[in-house]
Design brief:
The protein is α/β, with parallel strands linked by helices. It has 13 helices and 13 strands. A 6-stranded parallel β-sheet has the order 3-2-4-5-6-13, with helices on both faces. It has a 5-stranded parallel β-sheet with strand order 8-7-9-10-11, sandwiched between helices.
Length: 422
């Protein structure tokens, strides 16, 4: 038994400073994507909204479908938030919402249990946390003999590199199953289809591709649900006429666009004033500077974010300028949750379930065993509220600030040291 892990030029230390966490569920024909996939535009606040498209500032929302909004998917994801998932209550990474089960008998085998993984990157804290969790889950199955070898490539958020990585796995003929977390949706689709055509059972997770050739596609509920969780909270906790600033990572990434599209639907039905939506590259310094500029012009009552790992920088802008804390949307990264606890501000932490990094490993073993898996494996995605914040903080008391509260690895053998030593 052996384990091979090859990480290409993407050291976790540098990765921790980069932006955008999480991913999300697609349309029926266009699965989705999560973290930064292309160069973002740095925009000054005064240029963010030219008023030509009312939907951009939340004043109205198109009732029909568009490039980044499919109403049927939006409504389905909002409904899925209230559906009780199937599976063990204490193992959310094994739960599934409304699963349609797939027979995997044709892939059952004992001879080649080399598991290959094409990773988009470890370029942000969310992905680093998940990557550690995945490795710990692999250790469980290598120790039991159910995985012989684990081979990994890291594309460092480079589409061309990931296409090359996937082709190299195909050409090697060594992979008994292939896991792919795509860098971007459309560009990686042909590479995933080529892997499917080679006969390798393919598992796609986190970010999606525009094909259903894989055995299973694993993801939490999705970006619409994430964006709506935060927007609904702001609408419920702000007075009519209050002002909201939206902070976004990058344009053109489906999960992030879905989050913002959902927020636009909620804001359009509210009495809130949307001051603008600004791209930040997820950079704390940019976030702080943008928020400060808006505060110099007037009140900002609420902050909506499409990814919360820069939330503390936004809060610090209010502190530095002597303004009252906003009603805040962050994420389950501990830096934000600890700031939330310290300040007592009104806030919510939407979650893009980090424990999903365990599920592809479980799926691969199930497939080799000829056991059914969901064709679309939709995992639960429940935000952290003021009521349960203390419990998650206590549970993660010794974890670093860039750790994610819902990582789901407390029962793995390397807990807690593996995550503390990142």
């Amino acid at each position: 038994m052996r384990k091979t892990r090859v990480l290409l030029a993407a050291a976790a230390t540098a990765a921790l400073t980069l932006a955008a966490c999480t991913t999300d569920e697609p349309t029926e024909t266009a699965p989705e994507d999560d973290a930064p996939a292309e160069e973002g535009q740095e925009e000054e606040p005064e240029d963010s909204d030219d008023g030509d498209d009312p939907a951009d500032d939340g004043e109205s929302a198109d009732e029909g479908d568009g490039e980044w909004f499919v109403r049927a998917d939006y409504e389905r994801q909002l409904e899925q938030r209230d559906i009780e998932p199937e599976g063990p209550a204490d193992q959310p990474w094994l739960q599934a919402i409304d699963p349609e089960w797939v027979d995997t008998a044709e892939h059952a085998q004992d001879e080649n249990r080399t598991l290959c993984f094409s990773n988009a990157s470890v370029s942000n804290p969310w992905r680093v946390t998940g990557w550690i969790t995945m490795q710990q889950q692999v250790d469980v199955y290598t120790d039991s003999g159910e995985i012989d070898d684990f081979r990994v490539s890291d594309a460092a958020d480079d589409d061309n590199q990931q296409i090359s990585d996937i082709q190299a796995f195909i050409d090697s003929g060594d992979c008994g199953a292939l896991i792919v977390s795509p860098s971007t949706t459309a560009t990686l689709t042909p590479a995933v289809e080529a892997a499917c055509d080679s006969g390798i059972p393919v598992i796609v997770f986190d970010r999606g591709v525009n094909t259903d050739c894989m055995v299973t596609f694993i993801h939490p509920i999705g970006g619409y649900a994430y964006g709506a969780d935060g927007a609904e909270f702001l609408a419920e906790n702000l007075e009519p006429g209050s002002s909201v600033l939206a902070l976004r990572i990058l344009p053109g990434v489906d999960v992030l666009e879905h989050r913002w599209a959902a927020a636009q639907q909620i804001f359009a039905d509210s009495d809130l004033e949307i001051l603008g939506n600004e791209f930040t590259d997820g950079d704390g310094a940019q976030i702080k500077d943008i928020v400060t500029q808006y505060l110099q012009r007037g009140d900002v009552d609420g902050i909506w974010m499409d990814a919360g790992d820069g939330a503390v920088a936004a809060v610090e802008a209010f502190e530095d300028t002597g303004n009252d804390y906003p009603v805040m949307m962050g994420e389950d990264e501990l830096s934000f949750m600890r700031k939330w606890e310290e300040t007592g501000m009104t806030a919510i932490a939407p979650v893009y379930s980090n424990f999903q990094w365990r599920t592809p490993i479980e799926a691969a073993v199930n497939i080799w065993n000829g056991e059914e898996v969901p064709a679309e494996w939709v995992l639960p995605q429940e935000p952290i509220t003021d009521a349960d914040r203390g419990d998650f903080l206590e549970r993660n008391d010794e974890m670093p600030s860039l750790h994610y509260a819902k990582f789901g690895g407390e029962d793995l053998p390397g807990y807690p040291e593996a995550w503390q030593d990142r």
